[in-house]
Structure formats: structure tokens, C-alpha cells
Amino acid sequence: MMSNADPKELAKFSELAHKWWDPESEFRPLHQINPMRLGWIEQQAGPLAGRQVVDVGCGGGILSEAMARQGAQVLGVDLADRSLKVAQLHAMEAGISQVQYRLVAAEALAAEQPARHDIVTCMEMLEHVPDPAAIVQACSDLVKPGGWVFFSTLNRNAKAFLFAIVGAEYLLKLLPAGTHEYAKFIKPSELLTWSRAARLEPVGTRGLEYNPLTRRYWLSDDLSVNYMIACRKPAAPAA
What's the stated role of this polypeptide (predicted)? Predict the structure, then answer.
């Protein structure tokens, strides 16, 4: 079950694990966009209070913890052990008991807990694994009929290469050089195809833009670089 992971990617994030909760570190962009991601999730799926949520590829727990603060019961899963330990420590220090973390592959968790969760999130993770379609399928398997699945990733085109790699990693140094591989970027059409094949119904998209002069992020209809997709699992037919 752990074969759908790139050891180089896991090592990369393990080396940076101690910086996850430093808002001025390499993870600054995630801290800045997190309120927008959280707001869009709630806009689509409704209030999180009392909902069972799985955050696939949770890293240091930035989104996981934010959803728990909104009242969700959150399970964050990842294969980077050092990142998970940072996430666990931060939640403990913050006194947040509604979030738990596990070192487990999404596919393994889906086999263990099928159709058990109200919401599944998988943010900025698909472009880091060898088989992203398998992760999409696992997310679908984890969610209940009628539940929600949210993905975010990077488009694959010249603009995305210029903005997400040349600009963000080398010119503006918002991210460490080598964070992303252009060949692993995912076109929205590809992600939509995988979602439908996994019996998910795409119901909304949102783009994320950045102005390097004002250092401000905002949501838009432009999916050309960073984008999010909201999907629903069809409700079970009435008995």
C-alpha cells in the first residue's frame, strides 16, 4: 500500500518538517492560502462542526487543524513521519483534541474505513505522487454517499511552469527550489476524468491567484495555475 509514494518527495518534506508552523518559512504560502481554502470548503459543503473529515496528505496539519477548530472531527494522514510528529505536537500544544494523525497510505485507509467520512480533502498532494488517479479513487472510497471530496493541485501549461516553478521557486523564492516537478502537474481535464471514473461528481472549481507586488492571494475563476475542485459522491438510492 505504500508503493504510491515517491521516496524523494517524502525525504524532501521530512527535511523541512520543523518549519511547517513557521508562517515566514517555505510554508508561508500554505499559511496565507489556508483561510481561503477553508472558506471555500465550508461554502461548498456547509458548516464543518460535527462532520467526520479525512485530510489526505496532511503534512504538518495546517488545514487539518483549521478544520478541527471549526468543530470537525479530523483525521490527518500522511506518509512523512516527521511532518506528522510536528502536526501532533502542534495540536497538543494548542489543546486541539478534535484532530488525530496517522502514518498510513490513503489506499490502505480506504480499505480499512470505506464510506465512513463526510468530507475528504486532498490539497497540494496529487502532484507529488506517482499515481494520482489511485489517490482520487481512495478519496472516493473513503467518503460516504452524499459526501464531499476536495482536491487542489497545479495545472500543467506554460503559465503554470512560469509562475509555480520559475517564479515561486527561483525568482520570488516562495518555495524551495525543486519543490515541484512540471511533468507531475495535472490538467483540470485529467483530474475531472479521474474523479468521474472514481464515481465522484465534480460540482465546483476555483482558481488561486497571487500578486507578487502586493504579496496577496485571492480566489478566482482562473484555473490556469493553482486550482481546486469540489466533488460529491452520489447519494445512495432509496431503499
Answer: O-methyltransferase that catalyzes the 2 O-methylation steps in the ubiquinone biosynthetic pathway.
Which grid cell is 1?
500500500
pLDDT tens sequence across 130-180: 999 999 999 999 999 999 999 999 999 999 889 888 887 767 777 777 778
CATH top-level class for 7-232? Answer: alpha beta
Q: How far apart are CA 78 and CA 121, in angstroms?
A: 12
Q: Sign of the CA dihedral 93, 20, 113, 149?
A: positive
Strand partners, 151: 122, 229
The DSSP secondary-structure symbol of 185 reads -
Evaluate whether 37 touches 64 at the Cβ level (below 8 Å).
Answer: no
Number of Cβ atoms within 10 Å of the Cβ of 48: 22
Annotated binding site: 37, 57, 78, 123
Q: For residues 212 and 165, give the distance between their C-alpha atoms in angstroms, rounded to a whole number.
A: 14
| Assigned C-alpha cell, 27 | 510554508
Neighbour tally for 145: CB within 10 Å: 12
Cα–Cα distance for residue pair 37/27, rounded to 1 Å: 15
Domain ranges of the chain: 7-232
Nearest 5°: CA angle at 134, between 175 and 151? 50
Annotation: binding site for S-adenosyl-L-methionine: 37, 57, 78, 123
Helix (H/G/I), strand (E/B), else coil: 9? helix
